[in-house]
Design brief:
Blueprint lengths: L1 H4 L2 H17 L21 E3 L2 E3 L1 H19 L5 H27 L6 H10 L6 H4 L11 H9 L3 H27 L7 H12 L2 E8 L13 H10 L5 E2 L2 E10 L4 H19 L4 H8 L8 E2 L6 H7 L7 E7 L2 E25 L5 H16 L4 H8 L3 H4 L4 E5 L6 H9 L5 E7 L2 E22 L5 H17 L5 H7 L4 E3 L16 H7 L11 E3 L2 E11 L2 E2 L2 H29 L11 H4 L6 E6 L12 H7 L11 E2 L4 E9 L4 H34 L2 E3 L8
Helix pairs in contact: 2-4, 2-8, 3-4, 9-24, 10-21
Length: 700
């Protein structure tokens, strides 16, 4: 949403393009592969205030977004992303329909004369999809080409200008609507100056911060009457929207053991072909999902799963199949050479340095002696090392070159010989016992057939079928019982509102709409989410309203106690403020209370926050109007209580203000208009009667 709010003109233009798309195109193809041919095709996919959104226009817009996705990522959208794109297109079409309706209500029109004037007299301001037809090699309007196109009488030219006219009228209508909506958006000189000062004026201050917890033993615990009074006076804090809580089971669409075995068999087949004389590089070029790379690799440049297996192999050997984080690999060593860089493979045992440094050193030396006497280094690492990442691997750090480790550790490793155990070596992390396993300066050229492991269509359909069977047979009352009997992991969402993301799942309007339109205990159809196929049951419904006192009693107790502490701290600091020596300034407070510390902060702007304090608006708001050497009143901050003395601030820079004036004005204007526009759209949606029939067209 934040990104959208920064791009209002682009959003309006995209809605115009979407409008043109549904007018010009007449494809009618089903690009999703999931259209239900069940007799509902004549039903509109949606209705907005009585006006239909047809399946055809939805499908056209969806294909447009899918093509954009392919161009951005180079991949087809998976089921999860396809659902996200459907939701995105749905929101776009609903918004477009609402905007069209508002244009009609406001009687906004665009005449042929306006379009003609635009094309003839201001062609350089035409939208890019139109303008690009009439530019020369420098990107400027070619008037000869434009006039020739305008005079052309061919059927193609006439049709082109008919569609361009529709497009430009749609653009003009949105511009007029935008102008009407945003006519009230004004930016005052005071707002511009305030923004400038927040971003440019730099401050130097002295301050005292007092932690209210200092008085924790001096206040009484909140009484029942105080808790009730807080509850009465702050009911808006406890107002909640309608929420749902769901339980669900997930039938994973991850690759099965058979899917993995299938890839392993395929790679074993390639291995046999290579051993019988097939050109391995050609196999890579023809079958690998990663291109052949005709380069030499150094230690540390390959995946760890591959690194650990290839360096002890000879040229010509075939290694694998090897399972790795990105798939399964079959590798042939093509060549090796001596490189200019030396690499070390080492293991270590890390001993922390506690308060008693001597004791830590003694422990490290004992471990060193055990290792040198032949004790299994890997077992010693598993027992004594506090490096949890490597301890489970026997302390193995893998291969590394110079510049990868801290200086002391690196020097010890490169100085020692392979097989040597050295230490204790002290670094910022603690004491290290190091075993140098090997040193090497070789580089290898490899050919790598990499295949990803993906769920087969059989696996996916099997899991979908399991989910559908479960959804059809289970009841809400026995959801947990029957899921447990099948060995399924039952997940529970925290409460969520209709327009919020579903915790653990994300934004999913289809699931949210189902949850808020069904009864407690209802069991859902199958929904595709990231990771597989999910079946939900509604486990809790909470209506909108004020949370009961007993539900929030403990939270109120904490808040009341915090306010008491703040009041106590405020009164104490205020009493000290009145006794300050004005000639000595804030520094004199330490004579009144030696436990308080006067700190300084300098070089900051209000937009960036105060070092040591942060962006506490209670404090920032006081600084704006303070004068040099002035000491503030006592300030209740978000967490602490403060006294501030302004030491200095940079003077107002008239020249910089003049140069930034228009930029700041436009910045504030854009923020205001975006807020207004999206608030207007949200309000239209809340008050619209919207019928969503997507479930008639798409499997859930």
């Amino acid at each position: 949403m934040a990104k959208m709010r920064d791009n209002l003109p682009a959003i309006l233009l995209s809605l115009v393009i979407l409008f043109l798309l549904t007018i010009v195109l007449d494809w009618g193809m089903d690009i999703t592969g999931r259209h239900r041919s069940n007799g509902f095709a004549r039903e509109p996919i949606g209705i907005v205030n009585g006006e239909e959104i047809t399946y055809q226009e939805f499908n056209q817009a969806l294909e447009f977004e899918i093509e954009n996705f392919k161009q951005r990522t180079g991949n087809d959208p998976d089921d999860f992303m396809l659902e996200q794109l459907r939701n995105q297109v749905w929101e776009q079409l609903v918004t477009r329909k609402l905007i069209e309706q508002e244009i009609k209500k406001l009687n906004l029109t665009v005449t042929d004369e306006e379009i003609t004037d635009w094309v003839l007299n201001s062609p350089e301001t035409l939208p890019e999809p139109v303008k690009r037809n009439f530019v020369d090699s420098t990107g400027k309007i070619d008037r000869v080409l434009l006039e020739r196109a305008l005079k052309s009488t061919t059927p193609q030219a006439r049709q082109f200008w008919i569609e361009v006219e529709k497009f430009l009228k749609a653009q003009k209508l949105t511009e007029k609507l935008q102008s009407r909506l945003l006519a009230s958006v004004l930016v005052s000189e005071g707002e511009i100056r305030e923004r400038f000062e927040k971003q440019n004026t730099r401050y130097e201050i002295k301050y005292v911060s007092l932690d209210p917890n200092r008085f924790s033993k001096e206040i009484s615990e909140p009484t029942d009457d105080e808790i009730k009074e807080y509850y009465r006076n702050h009911q808006d804090e406890f107002r909640i929207q309608e929420t749902r809580r769901l339980k669900y089971v997930l039938f994973s669409d991850m690759p099965s053991a058979e899917d993995t075995a299938s890839v392993l068999r395929e790679l074993e087949n390639f291995k046999q072909q290579a051993m019988q004389g097939a050109d391995f590089v050609e196999l890579v070029k023809n079958y690998s999902e990663a291109p052949f790379s005709d380069v030499f690799f150094k230690h540390g440049e390959l995946l760890p799963e591959i690194e650990n297996e290839i360096w002890d192999k000879k040229v010509g050997e075939i290694v694998g199949p090897l399972k790795a984080s990105d798939g399964i690999h079959l590798i042939k060593i093509l060549d090796e050479r001596k490189g200019s860089d030396t690499f070390v493979r080492a293991s270590h045992i890390l001993v922390p340095i506690g308060r008693d440094t001597a004791e830590s050193y003694n422990l490290a030396k004992d471990i060193l002696n055990l290792a040198k006497k032949g004790e299994d280094f890997a077992k010693l690492a598993a027992t004594f090392s506090v490096d949890q990442v490597t301890a489970s691997k026997g302390g193995d750090l893998g291969w590394f070159g110079k510049g990868r480790m801290v200086k002391e550790f690196e020097e010890a490793c490169f100085k020692a010989k392979p097989g040597e155990i050295v230490g204790p070596v002290r670094t910022q992390y603690g004491l290290h016992i190091i075993k140098v396993i090997a040193k090497d300066n070789r580089e290898l050229k490899i050919a790598d057939i990499k295949l990803g492991v993906r769920a087969s269509s059989e696996t996916i359909e099997s899991q979908r079928k399991r989910a559908e069977d479960f959804s059809h047979t289970v009841s809400g009352k026995k959801f947990v019982q029957e899921a447990s009997a099948l060995g399924l992991d039952i997940k529970t969402t925290p409460p969520f509102t209709k327009d919020s993301p579903i915790p653990g799942i994300g934004f999913n309007k289809t699931i949210s709409d189902w949850a808020f339109s069904n009864k407690l205990g209802s069991v859902s159809p199958v929904f595709k989410i990231r990771g597989g196929f999910a079946v939900f049951t509604i486990s809790e419904i909470k209506e909108a309203g004020i949370r009961p006192l007993e539900e929030v009693r403990e939270a109120i107790k904490v808040r009341v106690r915090r306010e008491k502490l703040k009041d106590k701290a405020y009164n104490y600091l205020e009493s000290l403020r009145t006794k300050l020596n004005k000639n000595e300034g804030l520094e004199s407070i330490t004579k009144l209370d030696s436990t308080l510390e006067v700190k300084t902060a300098s070089g900051f702007t209000l937009s960036g926050g105060i070092p040591g304090i942060g962006t506490d608006e209670n404090v920032l708001g006081k600084l704006i109007d303070m004068k040099p050497n002035e000491i503030s009143q006592t300030i209740k901050g978000n967490s602490f209580v403060y006294l501030i003395q302004l030491v200095n601030k940079t003077p107002f820079d008239s020249s910089a203000y003049k140069s930034q004036h228009e930029t700041l004005k436009q910045q504030i204007y854009n923020e205001k208009k975006n807020t207004l526009f999206f608030s207007w759209i949200d309000n239209l949606k809340k008050n619209a009667k919207i019928v969503d029939n997507r479930s008639l067209y798409f499997e859930q």
